[in-house]
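Shift notes (night). Ran non-specific serine/threonine protein kinase while the centrifuge was going.
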Amino acid sequence: MTLQDPLVGRLVDGRYLVRSRIARGGMATVYLAVDRRLDREVALKVMHDNLADDPEFVSRFVREARSAAKLSHPNVVGVFDQGTDETSGVLYLAMEYLPGRTLRDVLSQRGALTPRESVSVLEPVLSGLGAAHRAGFVHRDVKPENVILTDDGRIKVADFGLAAAVTAPIASAATDELLGTVAYLPPELVANGHADARADVYAAGIILFELLTGRQPYTGEDPVQVAYRHVYERVPTPSSIAPNLTDAFDALVRRLTDPNPDNRPPTCDAALTEVRMARASVPAHLLDERAADADDLRSAQTLAMGDSTQEMGAVAPAAAINATAVYSRADMPDLSPAGPTRIVTPNSAGLALSHPNHSDDQATALYQPVTDEQATAFFPPATDQQATALYQPGPAPAPATGPQPTRAMSRREGRLASKESMVPRLRVHDEEEPPPGFFSNGRRTAITALIAVLLVLAVVFTGIWWFTGGPGSYIRTPSVTGMPVADAQRVVALQGLEGKVEEQFSADVANGTVMGSNPAGGDDVKKDGTVTLIVSKGPEMVAVPALKGKTLEEATAELEAAGLEVGETSEKFSADVEEGKIISTAPKAENEVSPGREVKLVISKGIEPVQLDNVVGQHIDQARPLIESRGLTVEVEEQEYQQGGPAPGTVTAQDPAATGQQVAKGSTVKLYVVKQPPQVEVPNVQGQHKDQARATLEGLGLRVKEERYNPFADHVQEQSPNSGLVDLGTEIVIKIW
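Came back to this:
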């Protein structure tokens, strides 16, 4: 008989009508509910009683949930509301309801994804986490169970409010408790309880490993062993599980999961950039190549190398290491550099799923430090006789008749076991006994020792050769063609290689873009070697030659010699360039342009002709502006004033004469102008006899006019003008009466 969940059908906090239970986890149960106020479906996460009863947790949960509700991003599950039901005391979180599956469901169903699919999942996860980091949040519980793939194709990260609330601070001094999913915990969180944005980067790297290989890097019989491995082992490369995976993703996983948080990208935004760079560096066909089934190879490696998975026991069920839980740090081995060394055994490594009231005594009861005597008992020293017996032939051991004690297999024993399991045993039956004394004990021991030494030397030198000059000293060159040079250098550096830039001109590849590399992408290169990045400088530029004053034929020849072409030609009058020759170019001379560029030419039509006006008889003040308005230059030549001739300033002639023809613009027109006569002082002749006055005035070059008012008078009574300077030839009127 199935018991009905007591919360189903109830109205929580007077607002949320619970319809059904969706899932139950280690810290909360999730229900599908209807928000009666806004008439929408929500996911109602109800905290378990052991957490809801802790006032400190409730206060922290409320504070962090309110902050998480402010986080809005397309790749983050929205938090709508939080509260406590007054009637039942239920502590809840109302979140966006997203019909779909978790990433854990996808991995369970499909196993490993292709690199393209893996990156397409990881990028939105990192985008959502990056938004949280910018808002001051650290998730601290990133795992496939908290990644939602909706039915309409969206990808969202869930449980921000819960993770932040439970892990703020991440490990309290009072209880020394630790929250997280042990399969994705970073080393610093296990070792000292400290976590920042780089903890989410580490968890994202573990997820990438799992997406690419279909399995987690560490599994063990219990969570403490897995946590221990996060601290003391380096996350393996995906290609160690699936050899067909490219080195770019090996480098990326190692970068994201570096044990030293300072060596990881500082935030998930930075990690997202490196993921995109890694994806761009991998050829398209390799992005769609799913991880090959490497179970047989992995089993052989496990036997040959004494895989620590065997040392720690059988693979744990997924629920044991994938569930979010609060762990007592007393259950963890002391991982600080100054702390005592502890040996974790299957019996002593029990993990407490404790609540905040979990006592130190309870934690200690689950884990006890091992004394020196106990530690020695695990690996008793072998005597000389026992050591010798390892190399002596003897009868096969009798089959075990009952339960046998087990212990962790050492790496040396693992290698010996793998060799014995993989190399068939050959029993040689001698038909004849060797000559007496030939294989004496002393001689046999010497030969055996010599062979052993030679074998060891062979293995050592083979290993040295393999990793220094043989295949083991090479890695595949990353493909960086088409990437900006800065991004390409970072991709190369992620592989532990030095990127050397060599620039070349290219008419087809944009400036600053990698055209190729040496070695080429996918070719072998020495570890810590150099990859020459061939970077485009853009098209090779050529200078436009100076063509002014050259004929069109000469200009065409020079342009073709420079790798340029004659473009549009036009004609223009020019006062300083001879007709038929080049006035200017576009682009201008000495400018650098790309090869094959067309150069426009402006060709001279010679000097522009203009109409010449007739200005003879005009005063110079009117004649000069008229001629200059035609673009001509005026030259004046003065002529002496003649008594009775044209007035001073009058143009008497011009050269060239205006006969209706046109002249070249800018040419000179000479104008002949009567100059001003000299001036004289008018004397006063009043009172003088008229004849005497005339003689005086005419003697000075002045003309005299008499006006007689009395026929009998002959003396000047008045004159005009009577004084002052006047032009030579000016008429002076004398009046006689």
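Residues 203 and 519 are 34 Å apart (CA to CA). The chain has 24 helices and 31 strands.
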